[in-house]
Amino acid sequence: MIRQHVKMGKKQQNDRIRWRSHEVGRIEAFTDAVFAFAVTLLIVSLEVPKSFEELTHDLFGFIPFGLGFMFLFWIWGLQHQFFRRYGLFDAYTNVLNAGLIFIVLFFVYPLKFLAHTLVDMLFLQKMELPVTDMSKLMIVYGSGYIVVFLMLALMYRHALVNKEELELTESEVFETTTVMYQHIMFLAIGMVSVSIAIVFPAQPFFSGIIYAFTSVPISMLHRRRGRLHKLKFENKGA
User: Fold this and answer.
1) Of 64, 82, 83, 180, which has the highest C-beta tally within 10 A?
2) How many CB atoms lie within 10 A of CB 101?
3) Residue 59: its pLDDT value, please?
4) SS3 state of residue 84
5) Over the stretch 75-118, which tens digit does the pLDDT of each residue have?
């Protein structure tokens, strides 16, 4: 228990936004259970393999499982960070959080299917899915991706609306706005991907490859906002 508080303290010290919640609320506990269930749905197989060939097949399946797991873990981390920072448990936040976990559950099978398809293409050099169906898959995946980051962006916007109640400092308002912009950028990238898949259904590669360049605009945003934060607050003790 002591080590847990020490770890939480270190994470809080590295965050520009003061943590206002340290205990897991009911809505967070429910959300954790939903994410755990979503990860369970990603598991390769619930049956014990009956031959070495089946074992090899299942082990290879852990590659797409790992990809899906990393994505879900990332989204869970973003949601967890929000509640640690603001401790908002009002009705509007609960509705947004419910929308987030609902889309996560919807997202699991398209995510799993896409991960398996990508692994087959990259490692087995085979493409069993028709090109037009691949574009449809990218539309489904992108739509879920968009809604996930829409919910997160709205949650941070709600924190800004309640800045006086939360007693956010000017520095915290600035950082909250930065994170909201970040989620809007993720959302926009998903919209571009879906648009490409709709306009160019015969070129699903371009719809998917755009996600590989996500770090470019996000890094530019954080560098610019980081410089502004340093100019505005670091020398003022905000």
Assistant:
1) 82
2) 23
3) 67
4) helix
5) 999 999 999 999 898 999 999 999 999 999 888 888 888 888 88
Terminal alpha carbon distance of the chain: 31
Retrieve residue 34's tokens: 């939903």
- Copy the structure tokens of residue 236: 């003022």
Please check whether residue 100 is in contact with residue 152, taking contact to mean a CB–CB distance below 8 angstroms. yes
Q: How far apart are CA 137 and CA 158, in angstroms?
A: 32
Instruction: Determine contact, residues 159/129, Cβ cutoff 8 Å.
Output: no
Centroid of chain to Cα 152 = 9
Q: Residue type for 110, please?
A: P
Specify whether the CB–CB gap between 182 and 27 falls below 8 A.
Answer: no
pTM: 0.84
User: Rounded CA gap, 221 and 168, in Å?
Assistant: 22
> 204 to each of 18, 146, 148, how far by Cα in Å?
42, 18, 22
Distance CA(161)–CA(156), nearest Å, equals: 9
The answer to whether 178 and 225 are in contact (CB under 8 A) is yes
For residue 148 the two structure tokens come to 């996930």
Place of tokens 């770890």: 7
The first and second tokens of residue 234, run together, are 């670091």
Both tokens assigned to 211: 């996600």
Asked whether 166 and 18 are in contact (CB, 8 A), the reply is: no
Token code pair at residue 43: 């598991």
